[in-house]
Amino acid sequence: MSNAGTITYENHLKKAYSVRSGGKILAITDTSCYHLAEETAWLAGNLPETGLKDGYLQSLAGLGLNNPRKIFNKLVLLGALREKKKRSGKDILKMVMAPQIKLLSAQLQERFFGLFTSGSAISGKTIFLLTAGAAAGLLWGTLLLLAGPGKALPGPLTGTTGGLLVVTLVILGSLVHELGHSFAAMISGIGLRPIGFSVYLIYPVFYTNVSGIEKVPLSKRALIDCGGFISQGIFLFLLLLVC
Q1: Residues 62-72: what's their mean pLDDT?
Q2: pLDDT per residue as tens digits for the range 100-119
Q3: Of 25, 154, 189, 223, whose CA is between 20 and 30 Å from 68?
Q4: Cα–Cα distance between 220 and 24 in angstroms, integer?
Q5: What is the structure's pLDDT at 1?
Q6: d(Cα 53, Cα 4) in Å, to the nearest integer?
Q7: Taking residues 161-173, what's their average pLDDT?
Q8: Sheet harboring 33-36: ordered strands across?
Q9: Helices (DSSP H) in the chain: which residue ranges?
Q10: Which H helix or E strand runs over 23?
């Protein structure tokens, strides 16, 4: 039986992306989200990322808090601090077969979207214009698909170089799709979401962490679900204009 004093704990919320939601702090990690009281969020941001129990007790005392042992136990009970487990052979195999690689953090997206908007204050007119652009792209693309190949592909899309360009556009379109989910989550009040890469069986996939979506109203849930198609429709519309 291991000594409790030798157990290493991890503060997995320290680097979480945080937004205000419903009077609480929503801490968003790569795969989950947590509704925290402001005090808990403050502690997570000021405590070390990893350490032994004694180290955390010293950090809590250094923050000027009374009864650090009680606070430490409470943080462990809440799951804000948890025991850092060693990776087993099964965990390593899972990482190889189904890796979870973060491509775009919420913080990076915040810098990008900050160029176009401030926070979640998006007007209904803006949403309407985005939806109209997506509808135009999807309708135009559908009509071309139904009409069949009316003419040869544009020169840049043929040959070896063209094949690489097509693959690049497919990958870029997939990322745009995931960005749409993340952007829709932001304007729905649950913050921007990290985008990652994984492998499903043998098929490479991009994914967006939209955990917590079940707690928003149905209309916002539908917007988050459709956000990928809206952004991809706009992307298609711009591609068709270029072609």
Answers
A1: 94
A2: 899 999 999 998 887 766 54
A3: 25
A4: 19
A5: 45
A6: 8
A7: 84
A8: 17-21, 24-28, 33-36
A9: 38-46, 53-62, 68-78, 89-97, 106-113, 124-147, 159-187, 218-242
A10: none
Residues ≥6 apart with Cβ < 8 Å to 16: 27, 28, 29, 34, 44
The mean pLDDT of 137-141, rounded to a whole number, is 90
d(CA 197, CA 204): 7
Q: How many CB atoms lie within 10 A of CB 72?
A: 21
Whether the CB-CB separation of 215 and 189 falls below 8 Å is answered with no
Structure tokens at 188: 């729905």
Q: Tokens 């990482």, residue?
A: 95
- Asked if 126 contacts 221 with a C-beta cutoff of 8 angstroms, the reply is no
Length of the chain as a residue count: 243
- Rounded to 10 deg, the angle between the 218-242 and 159-187 helix axes is 150
Is 110:37 a contact under the CB 8 Å cutoff? no
Residues 33-48: tens digit of each pLDDT: 999 999 999 999 999 9
Q: Quick check: pTM over 0.70? A: yes
Closest to 51 measured CA to CA, from 60, 63, 42, 39: 60
Residue for token pair 């040959």: 159
